[in-house]
Every structure is written in structure tokens, then in C-alpha cells.
Amino acid sequence: MILKNKVAIITGASSGIGKATAELFVKEGAMLVLSDINEKDGKALQEKLNKVEKKVVFLKADVGQEEDHIKLVNLALSEFGKLDIAVNNAGIGGPQAKTGNYPTDGWLNVININLNGVFYGMKHQIQAMQKNGKGSIVNISSILGSVGTQQSPAYVTAKHGMNGLTKAAALEHAEDLIRVNSVGPGYIKTPLLDNNLDEATLEMLKKMHALQRLGKSEEVAELILWLASDKASFVTGSYHPVDGGYLAQ
User: Which of the residues 102, 155, 187, 246 is marked catalytic?
Assistant: First the structure.
């Protein structure tokens, strides 16, 4: 149980990578503050994880609102007395269009949730971790934080920005013993993907990975767990793809 007695915040925890990470963290001994805009599924996950031991709380939160991050950090402190780990996972895909035709409201929404939301979270998570004397933050980026793709300019921009923010914060807060890293999943079989892409597109995406398949949320969660834990004690300011060989080609 490599996260025994650790307290973690996980955003976007109701499904996909966030849910898999929450399930793995509890198995490894962590106490959790979960958030999502999907309150129904978030509370269902809370109930499921609390069947063995009551150490998971859920708060409906919009990561694009700074005050919601303050509430999440305060909940961690009031329920568990500290904050050791934060996984900034919540995000959206946004509209599909070329830059010259991209809707401005869609751009602003994607940037606010996928980039501003990570900044808001880190700002308040770091302050709590400073009081604790150490901590680990894992930001969930994407392969599109390293390369581009067509018709998703806002998403690509936000994920590239997140990786830059991760590096800056890691340098600034190394003296506080707060490690900050980002994870770059390839195309992972999650509701975000299933709800937005047809079967033909999904088959095409599989072939873009060296392993010729989509990833699983559980596979990403294993990397997040390692980065969050003390096993990664000399790892900070870095970007870690988990992409089935997508970026190697």
C-alpha cells in the first residue's frame, strides 16, 4: 500500500482515467477528495469506494472556477487534516474545427477548463502542500501536449500550456519538496472518446499507435500512481507519455 495515510485530490473522477485512478489509489491506501461536474456518477463512485472503509469524500466542482478548487482543498484539510497529492485530471475535448473557423466561445471554454483549471488547482494545492512540508502533483496532459493534430487547436494549445506550467511550477517549488509532473496519455478508451468518435475513426486511431490498440484507463492510472508516490522521489518537472508508442513514430 504505497499511498498509505496519503491524502489526494482527484478531479474529473467520475469516469475514465480519473475513476481508474481513484480506485487504484484507494487500493493503495489513500484517502481521497474526488470531484466532477457529474454528481450522480461521482457519488456512486464514492459509495462504492467507501464500502470497505469510509475514507472517500466527493464534491461537485467545476474546475474552471477558482473558488471550487478552494473548496476542494479546504475539504481535504477539514476531512483529513492535510493534502499530499493532487491529480489534475478534469478536461474536455471541445469543438472540432480548423483554427480559421474555430468558435471563440469554444476556445475560451477549453482553455478555461483544460489550462486555467489546472493553474487554479495547483495554486491552492501548492499552498496546502507547503504547510505539509512536501507533496506531489500530477497533471493529466495528452500526447497532444507534445505534438499537434488538426481541428483541435484549443485542446492542443491547452495541453502544451499545461506541460509548460508543470515545468515552471516544478522549478519554483522544488525547494518546498513539492514534485510536479505531467502524464501524456495516447488515445484511451474512455467515455470522452466513445461519445465523440464513430467506430471507423476509432479503428483509424488504433493504427496510429505502435501497439495497434487504444489504451485503457487502468494503464494510465498505474503511471499516475507511481508519479504520485514516494517511489518517484527524484522525478519532477517531467512529461511522461503513456501512449502505446504513438510518439515514437
Answer: 155
Q: Residue 139 in contact with residue 180, Cβ under 8 Å?
A: yes
Q: In total, how many domains does the chain have?
A: 1
User: Which tens digits make up the pLDDT trace of 10-37?
Assistant: 999 999 999 999 999 999 999 999 999 9
Domain CATH code at residue 60: 3.40.50.720
Strand ranges, E, within 61-167: 85-88, 135-140
Which stretches of the chain score pLDDT less than 70? Answer: none
Distance CA 19, CA 232 (A): 22
Which of 19, 75, 20, 1 is CA-nearest to residue 218? Answer: 20
Catalytic residue at 155? yes
Main-chain phi, psi angles of 13, to 5 degrees: -90, -5
